[in-house]
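Give me the fold.
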Amino acid sequence: MSHPNQCQATTSSDTPKCHGLTGPISLDLPEEADLIQTRKLIATVNSYRVYENNFEQQHREMVVKRLESLFKEWLQEVCEEMGVPEVVKDNVGGKIFSFGSYYLGAHLKDADIDALFVGPGFLERKDFFTSFYEKLKAQEAVKDIRVIKEAYVPVIKLSFEGIQIDLVFALVAERSVPENLDLLNNKVVKNIGNICVRSLNGYRVTAEILRLVPNVHNFRLTLRVIKLWAKQRNIYSNMLGFLGGVSWAILVARICQVYPNATLSTLVTKFFKVFSMWVWPISIRLREVENCDCNLPFWDPRVNLHDRYHLMPIITPAYPPQNTSVNVSPSTFTIITEEIQRGNAIAEEIQRKKANWHKLFEKTDFFDKYQHYVILEASYTTEEQHLKWVGLVESKIRLLVGILERNVHVALAHVNPKSLPGPWKANKKDGKSTMWIIGLVFNTEESNKQKIDLTCSLQSFTSTIYSLAESCKIYEEGMTISAKYMDQDLFYSPKLKPGVTRQFPATEALCYTPTVSAAKQGTKRKELPQSEMPAKKFKAHKVLNQKVRSSVPVIRASKQPVVPQAAELQHYEEASSSMTTAV
């Protein structure tokens, strides 16, 4: 099937085939040195033991088949309850489509499975999240099941025989769902609700990505490498404002399009080189998506004012196109681009034989990176509360990052994507908690003039969480949340012996507000976002000379970003292709 406005192969053998918006940058075939580096890179990645063996892969396939069997059973039960004719019931069908990293073939060990359940149009969406939920809950193999109806794409989350699974549901405007249903046909999104369109888009996007890359095998290998790197460097989380799986997949696919004959090591090197030079907010797109006039939200900064504020647009290749990186904030933008710059520097060292691939995947020491931290703690008393409460808080942490960014004293707020078990509380025998750590960089030019206060920012966030919990009807006694400042000097003992886990002080100690010595002077940070300023410049020994307090509220409005005009955006699009020719 041809794609509108996408480059197509021509009859001339001298003209290279286009796999995206532009022609290839290079058609060079790999040389012996490239193949040697590829073998070294594969050996390095395999040493981390992050991929499944054949038995584990077969187990995943079996779980998907069992879920599809349960879904078809449920469809028959619903048809009987509705009293539909036998001929309709016998042919109702029903199908599961996996999507995301599992469908792309780039999932890591212990990754979840994203699954789309498709049913006929005469069903009610609510039945999937009620009666099918109850059917799943009754299965012995199902654990930790919960419904999140308020999500942008409503989802049932569960564990099936130890595998985490996210289930979404969509209805198509048909009386039956055949086995050969083509979800990539744009007609499928007509005459259905927006929620169903969003549910279908997960599969439609990942399927389009695979169709648009010249070499699926090399794409999968490269994506696995980039995902491992992003996880090791703590920049893999769409929910927390970094980039998620689909964003990384689109970035990798674009590199594969412009280097169609390259081997793995070259693709990884070019990934860092191209995106270290990229001029955001020029968008990354795999093809031009035609507007089908279905009155669906369509990403287009020339038309939609709010699309012009996106810092790092990475656009899906299926209709309707959406920005997969809409959660990226000024802080996370800076951190992501800094990490890409670091990756490019290491890749260049590897090319000069001054480093090996292990250096690329070295973990960052988040707890030694900043002088100031905010400790966010969600407490609960039961495992059922843990699933609901921790899930809600974690899904809204990026709101806290946004609130902190709007504080005039905060130059950067960096949340660690990895949560931690909270400290044991002697006064609560059954109490448990989960913590998230947010590193802060203060704008010292502003901070030197007055004392810093974060009370209003932190209280605003905790109040929002309690309100959301009440409105979603998930709040129960025993659910609490606190957000407190902590200096690095109290965060953990700097003299821990190698191999000893970092020691977090008890909750009471989190209330202490330390005095930062005059020796720890601050370094001015330019206005965000700026990719050329490494976060490590703002380590512990270079921040503030005042007392950091939480008593007098101080909140300032942030500056509005400059909105590019339609003509400028057109210039950005034209500049993107010319810029890559220099790579």
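The first strand starts at residue 95 and ends at 99.
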